[in-house]
Amino acid sequence: MGTDGRFGGAVPPERQISAGFIRARELVEAIAACGRSAEFPDRGVSRLALTEPDRQARELTAKEMRELGMAVRTDACCNLWGVLGGVEKGPGVIIGSHLDSVPEGGDYDGVLGVAAGLGVVRDLLAGQPHPARTLAVVAFTAEESSRFSLATVGSKAAAGRLTPEDAERFRDARGVTLARALRDFGGRPEDLGKEPLSPKDWAAYFELHIEQGPVLDRTGDDVGIVEAIAAPTRFMLELEGVQAHSGACPMDLRHDALAAAAEVILAVEEAGRSEARHGSVATVGVCECHPGAMNVVPGRVVLKVDLRGIRSESVARMRGAVMAKAVSICGARGVACRLTPYSSDEPVAMDTGLTALVEDVCRERGVSHRRMPSGAGHDAMFVAERIPSALIFVPCKDGISHSPKERIEWSRVQAGYEVLREAVKRRLFP
Ligand code: GLV
Ligand code: MN
Ligand code: MN
């Protein structure tokens, strides 16, 4: 009986579980321990970018790259590259994703794509000691906005869209600049933007990622072929009221920043609801209340707002609606409101040629699949600005992600992994 055969008889070689897939799973499981608290293991992983747990995950990944005979290097933005030179001239193939997580996140977001990439390298090397063209696996730095309020940092840098000034401007909650954190990790923030990826060197970028939504889990399809990625528009709203004694300050004299923020949060939700028919969404994911004491009327609140859609006009309408509402809510309450933009990215289409290739592979292999948009942001958004890119989704249980409850079924992920491997192979041995 083959490794996944239940009824005896030969399992076709392409359906057997490959050494690369087994190793990818082991690597995901090893990295899941980086950033998991021994005291609270059910709180998921907190592996914020450029922190100690991120360093540990990078070390495990680099070790695997070395074992595969890849040359390991990091670039100015600390993106971790494993590269295997090709025997022929011509543009190569990159497989990538990220290793950082949100606070209290899941085990698979990003990590699965990096580990699957290394699994594919292992499998392809088993049949052929050297790829025809150069093959690289990359773990991009800080895909999550959780630490520096800036997402897809490494892939923005790889696309030449991050400047040394940006790295000085974005800071974490403790005031550490992105530039400083990069430098502490061996990066060179002063060189950001100098060496963008070039289509002369690279023919294709592939990213495999959990869907992070419920579509594949509900439909039973094993693979999602992403056509377009919704891009986030993000900003901070600072609401400045008047801090006062919660016992002594009468209700009609208050300028409570938190009460104003509560109305603004509902306005953000309403803006998302009114654009839901276009697939847009709106979230306030951070609400910091100062000074944060039970007997003090809050004087200052910081909200962080995340608006997304695959139609720019819809995102623009949400932004306009949120601002108009915030101004009127705060005006009525005598609370000042200040907006600081973080980022405003455009929705991005994936490469039609690569998308068709992935679809052909699914059809040929009898893998159930569907074309779909991505609501979540991904490194592929920025890589796609420079080189043809494809994003392949695999299902996650109940569509839950950015949560300790993020789960996958490896037996379903196998189909997506094999589609990735075959698509990479066709671009690598053209
Ligand atoms: C990345 O996880 C995002 O926030 O979309
Ligand atoms: Mn994520
Ligand atoms: Mn991700």
Verbal overview:
- This protein has 430 residues and is α/β, with parallel strands linked by helices.
- The protein folds into two domains: 5-230 and 347-428, Aminopeptidase; 232-344, Alpha-Beta Plaits (2-Layer Sandwich), CATH 3.30.70.360.
- The chain is built from twelve helices and 15 strands.
- It has helices at 19-31, 52-67, 111-127, 153-158, 164-169, 178-184, 215-219, 257-274, 312-333, 352-365, 380-383, 410-428, and strands at residues 71-74, 80-84, 92-98, 135-140, 202-210, 223-229, 231-240, 244-245, 281-290, 296-297, 300-309, 336-344, 348-349, 369-374, 389-394.
- The strands form three sheets. Strands 1, 2, 3, 4, 5, 6, 13, 14 and 15 form a nine-stranded mixed β-sheet that branches.
- A hairpin with a 5-residue loop joins strand 1 (71-74) and strand 2.
- Helix 1 runs antiparallel to helix 3 (111-127), helix 3 (111-127) crosses helix 12 (410-428) and helix 8 runs antiparallel to helix 9.
- It binds glyoxylic acid and manganese (II) ion (2 copies).
